[in-house]
User: Fold these one by one.
Assistant:
Number 1:
Amino acid sequence: MDQVKKSIIKKDAFALISGMPVYTDDLAPKDALVIKILRSPHPFARIKNIDVSEALKVKGVELVLTHKDVPRKPITRAGQGYPEPSPYDKFILDEYVRYVGDEVAIVAAEDEFAAEEALKKIKVDYEILEPVLDFEEAECNTSIIHPEKEAFSQFDIGYMPEKNIAASYSMEVGDVDKLIEECEKDPDCVLIKRRYYTQAQAHVMLEPHASFAYIDLHGRLVIVSSTQTPFHVRRQVSMVLDIPIKSIRVIKPRIGGGFGGKQALHGELITALVTWKTKKPSKLVYTRREVFEATYTRHPMRFDITLGAKKDGTLKLIDVEVLSDTGAYGEHALTTLMVAGSKTLPLYNKVEGVRFRGKVVYTNKVPAGAYRGYGAIQGNFVLESAMDELAQELGIDPVDLRLKNVIREGETSPIFKIMGEGREGVEMIVRSCKLEEAIKRVVELSGWKEKRSKSERNGSKVRGLGFAIAMQGSGIANIDMASAILKLNDDGSFNLLVGATDLGTGSDTILAQIAAEELGVSTDDIIVYSSDTDLTPFDTGAYASSTTYVSGNAVRLAAKKMLKLIKEEAAKMLNVSPDEITWDGKVLRAGDKEISLKDLATKLYYTENQKQLVADASFVGPESPPPYAATIAEVEVDTETGKVDVLKYYTVLDIGTPINPNLAKVQVEGATMQGLGMTLYEDVKYSGTGRLLTNNLMYYKIPSRLDVPEIHVEFLESYEPTGPFGAKSVAEIGIDTPPAAVANAIYSAVGVRIRELPITPEKVFSALKGGMKS
Amino acid sequence: MKIRVKINGQDRSFEIDPSEYLLDTLRKNGYMSVKRGCDTGSCGACTVLLDGRPVISCSVLSASVDGHEITTAEGIANQMKEYMHALASEGADQCGFCQPGLLVMIYYLKKMIDKGLIERDKETVRRYLIGNLCRCSGYLPQERAIFRFLGVD
């Protein structure tokens, strides 16, 4: 074991830091047509008439497309496996526009100036419709956002467009109503019912969405895109534009961050369409404003939660009802809803009854979609805040309440089987779970016991500690497939070809480490090429915390096969049986005979038993082992202003084996800051008329360097038997705990409970004015 | 209109539109290390040196740099190997999109600190870098590397 559990430098590090031209817009052909989109100024309207004649007269304009010129085929841009659990409710361009920013027309021109000029000359006559802007009033509203007949869902996802419902779901274990009734009557029971809200958050990956397309020498369409899902892009472009899959190639170069925001198709359909029509290269690079206005946000949600417990702290029931806002289109509507339950409820697997229900409604706002944490951060804020409230009611230390009820290694939860992503899940025994140890360790690290027992006050500022735990998954069990190919070169190095998509996380390097470890060679001898639908084998893409576990397992299996092939060939060369061969990473030996891998490879290429050694493997996770986290945040609340400063943040995680401890730690640190941003200030805001107010980085604040607290990340020794070298996922788990840990810390400090994110100074101040803990 | 500039030590002249920004002029002419991350001068990804001082090139009119000297990440990366190694060793490069702009800032800070013109102090360095946003790393691994490289504690 020397290539995993090792902080190897990312293979692309020096290229990225020195500014090599490796991102989509850096690589676009200089003569590419520049595409600009005319976007709707209205939240809901029908295009009565659209006149592009003046736009076409602008010098340098190549093409103007409106809804009359594009195929009328409904799609979902979600970027999920097929068939997708999201409604097919979007057209490339439509007669209806459903939010401010929705696409009205496409202009392609020689340069940006001509394209911008043409946009101004398109005349649109809108019939303005009554928008639905409040998601709590969306269901059965008189305004129906998706009246079109063509929209449909691939299977039953609870899609009811006539009621503005994009998806709905319910499940129950035990008889929850009966348990609630019993609890109400039982003097030995405590029941709490609470309502919480979580807001929309913007991804703000530093690179705006970009794609370009060109026709290759075979007349095929090549799309280069900052996508997390090149194979889904290929499939969807084929489906909508009616171009055979064999005529499309999708390449993902380096991408400047994704966080789920680039899982969906944003732009690829348009560049593909323009290039396919004109046969000329074209590119579409979103402005930051477009990224805010016309891509995705996190789903805002409302939760009603009921918890029931015995006075000794035994949790009896959990009942959760959710209303989620998917905005104008239903991408990821069902799955984010379900994850709010499936990635939180199994934490407390010993309850007698658990129910989870919800609806996802359409509104005339920016569509919601995949964003790191995906339902889990919303669900976690609610469950872990409510557990803190329950602990308060019971008079039990919140840590002790968790320790009494949490899931442990070797146990299971009925939720695993009942709730998958968009469909049924899989049964799963938790093979690795160091949650209890994580809780104990974070308590020790943070000084929880000593600090909780005394209140620290400094003038108007009061300190407090809050606790929360979390779980995630590792890929989507039984659905997500990844594959890998290894090829031996004549110097004994290997090409590793993977469909997996490195978003900047370092997954190319991590997969190389896994291959190297299995082969017994150095990671330097693995040359990774990823994310090209022509040259790399299939992978569903980088989402749902899947790459290390799902793609990593495929790589490990391919490497096992390759090693077997090498030993077989060495045995032939040395005239022994393959069982006699030993291998030290450089030389293959049998008794006193030996051959180096380099010599073997050279002979295989040029002189003896000539052949190319290639090994491939595919992997579908039979289960999705959860990583776990236990977190304690220490905050300081200014009672005069309501301002909250997070001072210290301790998080202890079980992610199985960290393949690359540095990169794993950075995942948690980065996720923590995104989570703290959502907790304290990030908020997607609209005007009363449905226009996005937070459409640039001056109005939408992400954490800066000065907002970072002391963050202590620690990984526990853990080994997941189904993971590659014991690994589970790490990408998302870190974002889940910040909201509840901070909210609970604020309560502990000043006795006010904020149930609506983000926890702004205004909210804390108003709550303090309403009554402060004595 | 035509402008003459010295970029990374080389004399260049460009035909530009009077309303053009330096970011666009540089990218159009192959200086791809200069990234566009926002439209409002908020993210720092397009940072370059203008006569040795950092500017955000999205907010500088190209016409105004006629006769001046520009330095981009391409021009200084080979002098910054120790820094790049420090950063990569922390896994702090991540998606990399903010890195060339940050590299330019660190190059500048290193010079200024060595000359004694900027204080060798964490809080000072942090404030100089506040305009260089990063969404991947939570800044912590960057700062571990930067402070080590700059000899700041």
Number 2:
Amino acid sequence: MGDDNSYDIRTILTQMREDYWLALAEEESEARETLECLVFTLGGKRYAFETHYACEVIRVPKLVRVPAVQSLIRGIFNLRGEITAAIDIRPMLGLPQPEIGPTGRILVVRGDNFATGILAEAAHGVQGLCFDSFEPVATGSGIKAPFVRGHFAVEEGSVILLDMEALLADPELVAGEL
Amino acid sequence: MANRYLEIFCREAEEHLASLQSGLLVLERNPARTDLLHELLRNAHTLKGSARMVGLADISAITHTMEEQLKGMERGERKVDAQAIDLLLRGADAVALITSALVRGEAPELDVERFVAEYERGELGQHLHAEPKEHQPEAASDTVRADVKTLDHLVNLVGELIINKKRLEAKLAQLKEIACALPAEHSAPLTTFRGELEEDVLYLDYLIQELHGKAMGLRMLPLRTISDGLERLVRDLAQQLGREVQFQIIGQAIEIDRVLLEGLKPILIHLLTNALSHGIEAPEARAAAGKPRRGTVLLSARHEGNSVLVEVRDDGRGMDPASIRAAAVARGVLDPREADGISDEEALYLTFRPGFSTAEIVTDISGRGVGMDVVKKNIERVKGSVTLASEPGSFTQVTLQLPLTLSVLDALIVACGGETFAIPTTYLQEIVKVRASEIDTLGSGEVIKVRGATTPLYSLPGMLGLPERRDAGDAPLSAVVLKHCDQRIACTVEAHLGYSEVVVKGLGKQFRNVRFLFGATILGDGNPALILNVPDLFESGRGVQRATLSADEAQAAKRRPKVLVVDDSITTRTMEQSILVSQGYAVVTAVSGEDALEKSAEEQFDLVISDVEMPGINGFELTRALRASERYRETPVIIVSSLSRDEDKRQALQAGAQAYIVKGAFDQGLLLETVQMLIG
């Protein structure tokens, strides 16, 4: 500092350290305002839930049909030795059910009682969604949207935030209870 | 051992020594209990006498000294203290040492002469630290305590190993195919390599089997762990009820998987309670009937093949088939006509029917049966089966057959509805081939003869609500004959894929109420296969069958519209039948056009549903034939076919059919709608 001609390694290092801490602080303050979410496509729309519900995202393996259960349980698959269900939650959300193609993925999520696989048309990875752009579902707005907490208005359009706690606790997911 | 009497002596000595040992230990804790001395004296005295008889002077001398010491205690001349008891225990140990050496035909590891001499003088033989004493602390330090969860986890991991080994085996087979496809110069080294790999996998297989055996062994517990409390239960119950009962347990050492054992205890409590409250008569009644006043209840366990048989037998009044039938009719479990039709043996099993014993009065009528359906349910849960045997006035015997473990099962793998299922072999009687001509109808169901016995026939995919692979024309169907308690059913499947040992995996909480399934396993290709819960199939089968058997329903059936279902595919027949029956229609099935004409001549149907392509006359010809007859001129006919061309539809309508449903888009809503539209 001061004398530009001198090459003071200490000054440079100090400067670098300050820059580093500053950047960290900025990142942190930004992090406070975003929600880490797994973003994916259901019924042609973009949906998301908090990453802490997600265990992993896998390609759709061979699904074995289970007799005498509700249609939303599309089958079971072998997840490294654990028998896991693949469920199609789109009817629960009132969505159309376009075929799950090659981009299809299974989002393995863990609820209080069991782990289960949610079929999605595509997965778009983990994104930090900004709270500033979040609009909660207005209570009493008349629009009934089950299992939805609200949506984020982001550049690419809207991302709907699912209420995973309510969804995973729904008895409709449990075979044979209907 | 040369002398046969020696053998007998050694066995007798073992018993006396054991009771000496335990008695002395009690006495050591409570020196005031001099009442024990008498029994101890008797033991020592008997041993002395027997040893003399077979000429074992050393044992006779030792036990004589012991007897003298005990007598001294009884007379109060000798103090009952730790030292005196220790001396007696040393004596017992020495006798044990000598007899066990005799059994092995070796010289005892003890200077017997010197010991006898010292012992008579009341000295503690210093050199008798021999076997028994040394062994015990060592054995104790050889065991560790382990958490049950850790054991379960271990067993699961071994299960994973087995699955992985199966995948390796599947890969080996693939490698063979790859080698075959290569030119000879490349395939030779590959074949050699494959051979070596195969050996490695074989050895791995051996190791895994050993490991599995050991891991399972860790989870095994002897029956004794649950039977101890049962003695007390029987004793208390007998007192409450004013019965005199001798309770015997045989096979306490038989080991069973801990998980199964937990499930077994409530069942045994139930059965023993039944045996005492409904089986064993009051002492006076027994005496009057010429039986010993004291009744006997026997609980026994033994191995048989890959399972454990547990029996509860009492020599009480037995089960009376006549009063069970009467009770069943009174409860509405079955109608009088049906009751007359069943054998005495079958009648016993009526006690397992739900609803048989909901009220206490039933116990007065039938003499047995408090919640036997609960017993059956619990046994099914652990994949076991129950058989009953009884003779009125003499005995009742309930036999439970349990698998050794629930974590690995022997199963038959079958293809059904495009999926693969495993059927536990405990329920499998045999595999049969069925030709269409061998299928008869009985009531609304279909039956075949298996070894002369009329057996209901169902389609497995139909029962499970799965789609069917097209039947290959006239070829015989594959069917599995399943047994459960006294019942048999036959289920058609697409193919048998062989027997396999399968590792059972739970389906998790998401499937806790699922029907038809017991669990899943993972096959060699890494894909899961579902394991069928066979008793559910029997429930499902009975539901369909009983619809026409009960009196009320038979009455209702007279008012119900009758439908004739004609199809050469058993899956389609079963599916259509169950859809229609569930909506209150009475259904009769026919396996061909000819069969349909015959049946339609016997009784009047309100509606006919027919396939098109069948061996013999086809659906169009059948429709035309029906239209030509006086009785069926106006009867609606629905054609259900996989042919979807307009030409076929036109032909159907020309033949006189009222509706045409394409099988590809077959859904029950459409069928029902059409049926309701035509006949209401």
